[in-house]
Amino acid sequence: MSIVYLNGQFLPKDEAKISPDDRGFLLADGVYEVTPFYEGAPFCLDRHLTRLEQGLSWMRIQQPVDGLEDVQRRLILENGLESAATSLTYIQITRGAAPRTHYFPVDPVEATVYAYAKAWDRPSPERWSKGFTVATVPDQRWSRVDVKTICLLPNVLAFQDAIEAGADDALLVRDGVAIEGAHMNFWGVFDGVLVTHPTTNQILPGITRGVVLDLAAADGIPVEQRPIQVEELGAAEELFFTGTTGEVRPCVGVDGTPVGDGRVGTITKRLSQLFRAEVEAAKEAAAGTPVA
Predict the structure, then answer these.
(1) How many angstroms separate the CA atoms of 156 and 65, rounded?
(2) From CA 70, how far away is CA 5, in angstroms rounded?
């Protein structure tokens, strides 16, 4: 039985109880964050906590993130994941339990803080080298995608539509622009230039996206942040996604049409290598640091 964290307590998952009046359950009134760990070492934990804090501030949920680093490290330890090649922590914070209203509770309530840890698996090298496919799906999300809220119904429906179309993932399209995946940021390579959607309210500012932008700049890969038109996809030399558990994920087909020559491209491979090296450097820097 896994150990979870709920409102100040570490306890077996089957003992964790959340009120049916919780506004996260009733209204999706909350935010969340997912942080990857590699052999017990967190990757970009500070960036994840900063994004969580920004989301809480925008949602006007009064819950400090102080102490959540220790919570995540202890969850990794409590669940025996300190030696796991890849694991993650999930934190969800809602406004708390209160009578259901379409406005904030009149009387102050404590936020609900729930967190857990689990292992996840990278694709095998053989599977990664084959690449992944996507289906384009209309983007039906709300206008503040940059806030990592727990309201993910449009993402779920988009992903399901893509699966039913025989694809591995969804590529969300709005007003003729290929914006991002159902749970990852989207990139293309055009005439040797790396392109990704600019940081606006229409995309989630991915932590992995930020790392890859830094790595590309340091490696001399030209980068342009601009919208990618759907009509451009046929001319793309490479396409890929980035995300917390997707890392750098190659895309070799869109709606049944091959991308470029239908194989994983050289820039995608290079950025994946650089990202893996960054992970290894973070693990080495954390060596000797207690997990909790």
Answers:
(1) 28
(2) 11
Distances (CA, A) of 92 to 49, 62, 114, 232: 12, 14, 5, 37
DSSP 43: S
Give the number of C-alpha atoms closer than 13 A to the C-alpha of residue 248, restricted to the C-beta side.
Answer: 28
* Token duo for residue 45: 């934990």
For residue 22, the 8-state DSSP code is B
Burial class of residue 4 (count of CB atoms within 10 Å of its CB; 0-12, 13-18, 19+): buried
Summarised one tens digit per residue, pLDDT across range 222-237 is: 999 999 999 999 999 9
> pTM higher than 0.90, yes or no?
yes
Q: Which domains does the chain have, with CATH numbers?
A: 3-119 (3.30.470.10), 125-279 (3.20.10.10)
Q: Kindly give the interhelix angle for 45-59 and 68-78, rounded to the nearest 10 degrees.
A: 120
d(CA 246, CA 203): 16
Task: Kindly state the tokens that stand for 83.
Answer: 């030696």
pLDDT mean values, one per 10 residues, the chain (292 residues): 94 97 98 98 97 97 91 97 97 97 95 97 97 98 97 97 98 98 98 97 97 98 98 97 98 97 97 97 79 48
Q: Is 189 exposed, middle or buried, given 0-12, 13-18 or 19+ CB atoms closer than 10 A?
A: buried
| Whole-angstrom distance, CA of residue 151 vs CA of residue 141 | 9
- Residue 59: which H helix or E strand, with range? helix 45-59
DSSP strand E in 39-176: where? 41-42, 87-94, 112-119, 132-138, 169-174
Catalytic residues: 148
